[in-house]
fructose-2,6-bisphosphate 2-phosphatase (Thamnocephalis sphaerospora), 802 residues
Amino acid sequence: MVGLPARGKTFIAQKVGRYLQWVGVNTRVFNVGEYRREQCGAHQLHNFFDPENPEGKRKRQEAASAAMDDLLHWITNEEGTAVAIYDATNSTQERRRWILERCRTYQARAQLQVMFIESVCEDEEVVMENIRAVKLQSPDYAGVDPEAAARDFRERIRHYESSYEPVQERDLTYIRLVNVRSQVVVNLIRGYLQSRVVYYLMNLHVSRRCIFFSRHGESMFNVEGKIGGDSLLSPRGEQYANALPQLIKDNLGSENLTVWTSTMRRTIQTASKLPYPKLQWKALDELNAGEKYPEDYANRDDDKFNYRYRGGESYRDVVLRLEPVMMELERQHNILIIGHQAILRCIYAYFMNLPRDELPYIRVPLHTVIRLAPKAYGCEETRFRVNIEAVDTHRPKPQAG
Amino acid sequence: MVGLPARGKTFIAQKVGRYLQWVGVNTRVFNVGEYRREQCGAHQLHNFFDPENPEGKRKRQEAASAAMDDLLHWITNEEGTAVAIYDATNSTQERRRWILERCRTYQARAQLQVMFIESVCEDEEVVMENIRAVKLQSPDYAGVDPEAAARDFRERIRHYESSYEPVQERDLTYIRLVNVRSQVVVNLIRGYLQSRVVYYLMNLHVSRRCIFFSRHGESMFNVEGKIGGDSLLSPRGEQYANALPQLIKDNLGSENLTVWTSTMRRTIQTASKLPYPKLQWKALDELNAGEKYPEDYANRDDDKFNYRYRGGESYRDVVLRLEPVMMELERQHNILIIGHQAILRCIYAYFMNLPRDELPYIRVPLHTVIRLAPKAYGCEETRFRVNIEAVDTHRPKPQAG
C-alpha cells in the first residue's frame, strides 16, 4: 500500500485480502501500525512522526522492518500462490526501493512479484471524514479528547506530506486510485492475479449502504426433507413472503433497494410481495447436488468445501460462479438477496471473512433476514427472526473422534 | 477511438464490438475510413491527409460527419442498451469536443454516454509491423508497390502527428492504452458497461497464437441418442482420443499448449493421451438440460438461444457462465479446449462474431478439430476431420412455413 494517513489504505488492504482469500488465494495483511503500537506502545503523538525526530524515525523503521521480516517469512513458507499485503504509508521512493530490495533477497526461495496500490485523496473534507470515522477510534487515541485527537492526527499527516512522493516510477507495477477512483492509473500490470485485483479495486465503492439477505420461505421440499428440485413454498413459507415487506420497510426506511433472486420458484415466490425492482440471477441458483449416491455422502464431511457431488457441484464451484455476482454486489448500493442455504453461506463468508472449512457449516436459518452494514474495518451484522415456524435444515459439523 | 494511424484502433474496436455483442449488448462499429473510401474513392495518397490541404480536410470532415450521422441515427433508434463505436483517429481536442457536441444534441432522444479509448504506441518497430501486416492489405493500397505504400503510409502518419493531442481532458471519460497495455490510464469510468470494457481491454493481447477446439470423442450416450449424463467414450471415441496427440503435434509444432477440459468424464478421457498441461473448468461443462418435458421441447426452436429447460439452462445462461473463461482465453496463448457441443458453439460464435439466433445451430461435429488463428480483422479457421466414424448429433433449424 502507498498513501498518506487517512486515505483508506487499511480499508482497501482488508477488502482485497478478504476477496482474494474468498476466491481461494492464501492472503494475509501485515499492518505496520500494529507493530509500532506493540513495540512502542499506543498514544504516540504527532512529534513521533516528525521526520526531524531521529528517535521516532528509528523506531518507525524498526516496526517497518519487523513487519517486513514476518511478511517475508510467512510468504516464503506458504505452499502454492499466496499474497501478502504490506499495509503502511510507504510514501517515499526510498522506502519503496527498500521494499523491492528486501523482496529481492528472498527471490531465490519464492517468486515474489511486488505490486503497489496507491490511494490518493485531494479532498480535505473526505480526509477529515475518514479521520473522524476511523482514526479517532484507533488505539492511538484511546481516552484522548476527540478535538485534540483530530488536531494531532492532522499534524501527523503534515509530517508525511512534507516528504510524500506519489508513485510514478516507470519500472514499478502499480495502480493509483485518485479521488475515490475518479481517476485510475495502472502501470506494468502482469498476470491474472494482478489484473483481478485491479478490476476488483475499480469496482469498490465506499458509500454507506446495507446488504440484506434471506433464504426463500420454507418450501414443500424442506418440509418433506428433500434437497434439490424446484418446489413451491409451503403455507408457512407463504406467510413469510407476506411478512417480508413490512420487515424490510421497518429497517430500510425510504431508501432505494433492489431485490435479487435466483431463477428458482421458491425465491421468486418469496420476493413476490416486495415493492422494489427485482433481478433474477441464474448464478444464485442453489448448489446442484447432482445424483444421489449414499455411499459418497458419508464422506462429505471430510472436506465439505471441496466435495463435489457426482455430476453436481462443490462449494468451491459455487464460489467460482458467484464471483461475478459479488463483483456486481460491490458496485451496487442497497441490495436484498433472496437465496438458498449454500449460496448465502458463500456470500456471508465473503463479507465476514470466514475460512473455507467453516463456510459449509454457517448457520443461515429459514425465516430470518440478515442485514450487513459494511464499515471501514468489517461488517456490522443484525439478524431479524420472523416469528413463523420453519423446519431446521442445518446440519452441524460432526465432532471428530 | 483515439490514436494515430496504425495503432490498432480498428482491431480494438472490432474486438470490443464482438465481445459486447456476444454478452448480449447490441453493438455496431462505424469506421470513418470506409465512409471516406466510399465518398472519395480508395487510393488517396498522403497529401490527402495533409492538414494544409483544404480540399482533403473538407472531404475528410464530410466522411466523419456522414459516419456520425449514421451512428446517431442507429443508436437512438435501438431499443434497450446499445453501444456504437466510432472508429477514427479523433486525434485533436477540437475533434473530441465536436463528438461530444454532436452527441449532446441527441441527449433528448437517448441517454448517450461517451467514452474515449486511446491507443498509444511509442515503439516505431511495432508501428511498422502493424503497417506491413494490416495497412498494406487495405483497399487504400490495392495494387500499389508495398515499399511505396509503406513510405506513403508513414507520411500519412506524419500529417496526423503534427496536430496530435493525447487524451488528457480531465472532464472526459477515457481509457488510455500505452505501449501494448504496459501502462493504462482510466479516467471517470462510470457504470457497469464501461468497467467491463476497461477490464476486457486490460486482458487483450496481440501476440500471435492459436486456439484449437474439439468436442469429446463419441460417447456411449451419443451412440444411444441420449443427452445429459456423464457417460464414458464409445470404442470409436477412444480411437479419437488416441489419434488426437499426433494431429495436434502436426499442426502446432513444438510450441507450448495448455489443454482445457470440462469436469465431465468424456472430455477428460478424450484429453488423456495429450502430453500437455491440463486444466479442468466446471464452467465448460455441457449445457444442463434439466428435466425432460417433451411438450416444452417442441417449442424450443422458436427461440433456441433463450429457451431454458425447466430447472436447467438456456444458451444465454451458458454465455454468462462462459464469460470468465473467455476473459482468461483472451489472456492466454495456445489453448486446446476439449468441450461439448453447446459450449463450443458459444465459443465459436464469440470468435467468429455470429449472431445469437444462429448460435444454437452452429455445426461442431464430433471427431473434428477446429483451429482458429486470430488476425487483426477476424479469425482464420481450419478444420481437421479425423477419419473415425461418429454419430451426427446436429439438428438443423427447422424451416419456417
About this structure: Residues 45 and 367 of chain B are 50 Å apart (CA to CA). Chain B touches chain A through 32 residues (CB under 8 Å).
